[in-house]
Amino acid sequence: SLNREALEWLERTGNGKVHGTTRLFPREEFAVEKGFLMPYHGTPQPPQEEMREYHVRKDNTVQYRGNYYSLPCGTYRSGQTTVWLQETEGNVELYNKDTGKLICRHALCTRKGRTVYDDSHRKPRNAGVKIAERILVHVSGNREV
After folding, report:
1. Which positions fall inside the Transposase for insertion sequence element IS21-like C-terminal domain (predicted)?
2. Which helix or strand (DSSP H or E) is residue 106 part of?
C-alpha cells in the first residue's frame, strides 16, 4: 500500500540517512527530542468576525495603529502574506490566516511610530556559527573544537 511504502521510504531515506546540513541522523535526533515533547490539548480558534487582515511586511512586521508589531522570522513569504489581527484587553494578537492558530501576542503600544519586538522573533546572529560548530564536531569526532 502507499502508506506502507511511505513508511519504508521514511525509515530508509528520510530518517535513515545523514542530514545534509546538520550531518546528524534525524532518527537519532528525534529520539533525543522526543522526551521534551508535550501533548497539545488546546483547540485552535478560528478567526473571529472582528479580526482584520493585515499584510506582513518584508521585515516580518505588521503596521497597526501607527506602530509596527513583529512576527517570527520567516513569517513573510511573499508580497501576498497576510495574518489576522485582533486587539483584545490591551494586547495585539496575530493569527495564522490559514490555520487560525495564534502566532504571537504583543502589548498594545499607545505611542506612535514604535516598533514592538519580541526578542524570540529575531534571527539569532550566530545561528550559522552554531550549525558549523555541530558539523565540525560531528565530522572530526571530537567533543571540543
Report:
1. 45-118
2. strand 102-107
